[in-house]
Amino acid sequence: MPVITIVLALIACTEDVPHVQDLRILTLNLHTYQEVNTAGVPESELTDALAQQRIEAYDPIFDRIASGIAELDPDLVCLQEVGEWSHGNVDNPQALKFGSSESNMVRQILLRLPDYKYNVTMDWSHFGWSVWLEGSAILSKYPLTFSESRFISDVDTIPHSNDWKSRNVPMAKLDVPGLGEVSAFSVHTGWWDDTDEPFRQQYGRLLEWVEEVSASSVVTILCGDFNVAAGSRGYEFMIDGSGFADQYALAKPGGFFDATIGAGADGWEESEDGQRIDYVLMNDDSPLEAVRARRVFTRGEFGRVSDHVGVFVELGLAKTVQKNVK
Fold this sequence. Notes:
Layout: E1 4-7, E2 22-29, H1 48-57, H2 59-72, E3 76-85, H3 105-111, E4 119-128, E5 132-140, E6 144-151, E7 168-176, E8 180-188, H4 199-213, E9 219-225, H5 233-239, E10 244-246, H6 247-251, E11 278-283, E12 288-296, E13 310-317, H7 319-325
Parallel strand pairs: 2-3, 8-9
Antiparallel strand pairs: 1-4, 2-13, 3-5, 4-5, 6-7, 7-8, 9-11, 10-11, 12-13
Helix pairs in contact: 2-3
């Protein structure tokens, strides 16, 4: 299934474009309209009218997200669990075009950012909570020269999207002036110990794909919800020998265990403590390095919008590269 790409605006002029030596990156899991409940009605029984009420009730959450993006001014935004109402049509998933409905969470956010010109690519993986289309997205301030999506799960086609463990990842190549080609992947994987769709298998497929399509890229960014906790066996597998490094941990070593989900979050119901499972990974041989990192969309910064908090990382030209440039 081809990735749905929406070009909302391109950088209009290539003359006198400053050479970029830094990148600001935000990743956030949006939680597919689950921060508001429809009392007494299970998700599988939502009607069009009730779903519309849910979407309208999300107005303050979308306002908060847009306000945060406007202040952070990220160059690259990776979003997961991007929800869109399916109108109850789950019998013919191939006919559903992700991103075409106003209920799409990315569209709702961008409606609140009329002065921010992001290029967007997104695709969906499965039905979340039985009736919502659920996928991932990439927003870039720079032109997209290429985009596609691929399943990294055993379930690898939209007709089987009633399997909520399927994982379809969108990627895009960005043309960043003065820096070169940047490849970005908005990642949402399964869990390390999942018997049906283990993390090890999905991450291996992701890295094979990265090697195939990103050989010409100066910088490659893998970011999103990896569903492996910092310091765990899954985390070690994700980092050791992969050619990618955890930029939050590099920029903020004392925050290695900064939780991005709380205890009992969806998929982590048995966890008694918060866990850091959302990451920004970058290739080891990148000319950039992590400068600053922090959690956002917390109670203290912009307010909560999901069962995840956001991760914001600022990358700058590495000191060794700066010396060579001089």
